[in-house]
């Protein structure tokens, strides 16, 4: 028998009211009420019956339902324990496990080892907007063993995550993504598909994780220290912003920039990941 579709606003209201559930703005609770969007997210993530999915923040469970119907197994992590009784009503799937905890505290590699043996693993979420960047940085920095990330985020954030050199959206987080993944925006989503409606539009972005980082460097920490320092004062030249933000002699920085074949007068937003890699090697050689 087909499960009833949870994305119906009528069903959602009825069940949430029955449990006396109150939406928490602080936890970024905006639930999807559009079946078409759910299908498109599951399609963009490329989920089939060989896929294990980690979902961050199942909320009422509308996206979780779409994921459970296509994936081999779903492990969802929800911080709000008051949703537990709701989930008993909404999510009776044998291939679903829900962990009530803060995603930021989870050891994801351990979870993957324990729950997803032999499966390719993807991370899918309609992310709580207050914590989008820390979540994405956690996944990229901890080298979690996953093949892809598909997340709904604020439209502006999606543009920053997938930005290429030369524009105002390009920054340290674009480079963190570029270093580890191929990113593309697959969908712009109006605020009308959520309950309650957020103030901003959203976008779905997919990041296919590369087998190995896009560039080889001797020390990743140095690479990202240089990137952060370079964008610390993005309106300044690369020479000035690196000199202000790294504890290294200004003349030595200039020499390193020149050895990397770059113009000290250029700004950080013009440099590709390859150029930052060369620069970091020269600064810390
Ligand atoms: N996936 C649901 C949907 O699309 O309708 C809900 C998405 S809602 C934007 C974000 C969800 O993440 C909420 O259920 C919220 O309680 C949960 N959440 C917020 N912070 C979290 C955290 N640190 N760890 C895990 N879940 C979190």
Report on the structure:
This protein has 285 residues and is of the alpha/beta class. It has twelve helices and nine strands. A seven-stranded mixed sheet has the order 4-3-2-5-6-9-7. Strand 3, helix 4 and strand 4 (96-100) form a beta-alpha-beta unit. The relative contact order is 0.11. The mean pLDDT is 96. Bound molecules: S-adenosylmethionine (SAM). S-adenosylmethionine binds next to strand 1, helix 3 and strand 3. The site of S-adenosylmethionine has 23 residues, from strand 1, helix 3 and strand 3.
Largest sheet: 7 strands, mixed
Question: Tally the helices: what do you get?
Answer: 12
Bound molecules: S-adenosylmethionine
Termini separation (Å)?
Answer: 64 Å
- List low-pLDDT spans: none
**Number of E-type strands:** 9
Strand order across the largest sheet: 4-3-2-5-6-9-7
Q: Rounded to an integer, what's the Rg over CA atoms? A: 21 Å
Strand content: 15-25%
- Order of SSEs, N→C? HEHEHEHEHEHEHHEEEHHHH
Write down the overall mean pLDDT.
96
Secondary structural class:
alpha/beta
Portion of residues within helices: 25-40%
Summary tags:
285 residues, alpha/beta, 7-stranded mixed sheet, two-stranded antiparallel sheet, 12 helices, 9 strands, binds S-adenosylmethionine
Topology, element by element:
Blueprint: H1 9-18, E1 31-32, H2 35-45, E2 51-56, H3 62-70, E3 73-78, H4 84-90, E4 96-100, H5 108-115, E5 120-126, H6 132-141, E6 148-154, H7 155-161, H8 172-180, E7 181-189, E8 194-195, E9 202-209, H9 220-232, H10 238-245, H11 250-259, H12 273-283
Parallel strand pairs: 2-3, 2-5, 3-4, 5-6
Antiparallel strand pairs: 1-8, 6-9, 7-9
The chain binds S-adenosylmethionine.
S-adenosylmethionine binds next to strand 1, helix 3 and strand 3.
């Amino acid at each position: 028998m087909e499960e009833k579709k949870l994305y119906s606003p009528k069903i959602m209201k009825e069940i949430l009211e029955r449990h006396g559930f109150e939406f928490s703005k602080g936890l970024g609770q905006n639930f999807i009420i559009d079946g078409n969007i759910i299908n498109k997210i599951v399609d963009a993530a490329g989920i089939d019956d060989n896929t294990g999915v980690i979902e961050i923040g199942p909320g009422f469970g509308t996206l979780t339902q779409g994921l459970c119907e296509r994936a081999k197994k779903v492990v969802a992590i929800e911080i709000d324990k008051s949703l537990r009784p709701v989930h008993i009503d909404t999510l009776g799937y044998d291939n679903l496990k829900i962990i009530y905890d803060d995603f930021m505290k989870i050891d994801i590699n351990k979870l993957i080892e324990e729950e997803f043996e032999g499966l390719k693993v993807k991370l899918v979420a309609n992310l709580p907007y207050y914590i989008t960047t820390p979540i994405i940085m956690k996944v990229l920095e901890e080298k979690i063993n996953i093949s892809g990330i598909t997340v709904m985020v604020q439209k502006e954030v999606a543009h920053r995550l997938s930005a290429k050199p030369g524009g105002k959206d390009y920054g340290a987080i674009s480079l963190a993504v570029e270093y580890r993944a191929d990113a593309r925006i697959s969908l712009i989503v109006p605020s009308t598909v959520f309950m309650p409606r957020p103030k901003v539009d959203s976008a779905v972005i997919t990041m296919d994780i590369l087998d190995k980082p896009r560039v080889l460097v001797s020390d990743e920490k140095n690479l990202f220290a240089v990137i952060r320092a370079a964008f610390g004062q993005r309106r300044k030249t690369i020479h000035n912003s690196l000199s202000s933000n790294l504890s290294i002699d200004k003349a030595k920085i200039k020499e390193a920039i020149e050895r990397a074949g770059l113009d000290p007068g250029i700004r950080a937003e013009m440099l590709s990941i390859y150029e930052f890699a060369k620069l970091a090697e020269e600064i810390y050689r």
